Amino acid sequence: MGQDQTKQQIEKGLQLYQSNQTEKALQVWTKVLEKSSDLMGRFRVLGCLVTAHSEMGRYKEMLKFAVVQIDTARELEDADFLLESYLNLARSNEKLCEFHKTISYCKTCLGLPGTRAGAQLGGQVSLSMGNAFLGLSVFQKALESFEKALRYAHNNDDAMLECRVCCSLGSFYAQVKDYEKALFFPCKAAELVNNYGKGWSLKYRAMSQYHMAVAYRLLGHLGSAMECCEESMKIALQHGDRPLQALCLLCFADIHRSRGDLETAFPRYDSAMSIMTEIGNRLGQVQALLGVAKCWVARKALDKALDAIERAQDLAEEVGNKLSQLKLHCLSESIYRSKGLQRELRAHVVRFHECVEETELYCGLCGESIGEKNSRLQALPCSHIFHLRCLQNNGTRSCPNCRRSSMKPGFV
Ligand SMILES: [Zn+2]
Ligand SMILES: [Zn+2]
What we know:
myristate, single chain, 1% strand, cell membrane, binds zinc ion, Serine Threonine Protein Phosphatase 5, Tetratricopeptide repeat, membrane, 4 domains, ubl conjugation, structural constituent of postsynaptic specialization
């Protein structure tokens, strides 16, 4: 298969893919990969295969194609292609919750010689790096990376990137419990979809609706949460977007749990859990198990809760997510307290405080914890976060954590 035919076939695959005939598109692209001798074409088709497998949640295949793409980029001896393929490798690892690897490949990307395309992809590299830091609960670095990504998006008028960063920021603020910001950023993403998104994939709309649902649920607006989650799920089902389906199921389960309807919550956690397991989203599994454990606690079935916690703790340690570990220790603590088991109780108290130390989740001004209950937060330009009220009441001119001098409120 020569250059022209390769190009035609890639195009044919794209049309099939866009009209939701995913399997047919994959067949066409796989054939190009087998038959084409055109290196450029092979590189492009590998990119299509990476994206398609990412959207379907087939992350191991995604990783496989990303690795082959790097070899192809090397043969092409082109810096832009090499950068693009390393970004795909970073993203595949991000999806598989291999966060340390993601960060290291992102650093490889940033260290490659600067090119024109490099400036555009830089924002996406920063986003992926931020997501990985968030996965490890390294909050300050996550925020720093998101801010960088947002700056790239603004400088390049890249609304699609901005939309994705806003969704990640929503997830960031949901985790550190500033629910107002957790809602603000995905709303901003939804606004971008409305203003610019006519030609975009519906995926962006679904993504922003999902993050809004999570924030509404945390704020206790369960009706709005349900509406957004249903909208997101509808699109996810139409597009065979398994990863988003799993997240929506998890969100539905959390909404029902918040309503006290455990009967409805349990099967949704189970369904979320089985898709998360199938696609390899271990962090999602941790979240589902945490929800299940909370349901068992509400039913006073403490041993069943401890079973779920133990499974979740193993997974959380595997992926290195400190915040989940912290939450799980906190829940264990309350269980052992009500069981009156002092030795186990103390062990979890110790581990809980270690996690607080490691996540640095406390305000450098008042010394109290961040992320324990909903409160308004503000980041400084150094990306350290504080209670908004503490910053407003404070007269100092430099960040109490790192002594950087500007006290101007940060971008995000
Ligand atoms: Zn404070
Ligand atoms: Zn600082």
